[in-house]
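Hey L., structure's done. Input below.
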Amino acid sequence: MDIVIIGSGNTAAVLGRKFKQAGHTILQILSRNASAATQLAYEWDTESANYISLLNKNADVYIIAVSDNAVAEIAADLRLPGKVVAHTAAAVPAGVLKPVTAHYGVFYPLQSLRKEMSTLPDIPVYVDGHDKTAKQKLEQLAFSISYYPPVPAGDEQRLKLHVAAVIVNNFVNHLLALAEEYCKKEGIAFNQLLPLIDETISRIKEVSPKQAQTGPAIRHDEATIQKHLAILSAHPELKNIYLLLTSSIQQES
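Output:
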């Protein structure tokens, strides 16, 4: 397919590489960030543009890969009748693209993406096509870049998925960041925890997280919990999180 990507951030960069890897042609990358757009255009041997007025209108599919709060702003200035246009945002309704074309939809990659990735990850794609044309094109595009079959997902389902994704990715990463900071302050090498982190992630591929839960909270080991809280008195933010999560685990056990 011939594709135009609108955006030059993490999602745009990784999806663009996936599209190129799958044999698609990126006709153009359009972004207000001229420097980022130029760099990606050089990487993909294509052209870049910084204004909607310069948009290449010869593509089969237009992918709007920008921040959630920028999708509506771009859609307001975009008119592509007869073209398939999709945004990549989980929390933005597909209908925001209704004024742009009759063939609108969503191409939501459920993955943590970073522009600097040296290895392209597997990306499950959730697709929402307003009509048959959009659905078929977007599903075909998803099939070409993912080991996983595309999953139909409307606005409500994508939003619910996004909540779960934030919890398992952003919140877990924040906990790791807090643990790393705690280790620095306490003179502990954070990398000593890496085998434990690897095992924690590996284990939930075989059993549910609830079954895999261990530790003093689920054992109701009050003596150990109090010792931990004493140490965490010097780390009030982490102490509050420890208390909250301990209570949550105990309520579920």
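Residues 155-186 form the longest helix (32 residues). The beta strands are 2-6, 25-30, 47-49, 61-64, 84-87, 103-109, 125-129, 151-152.

-- N.
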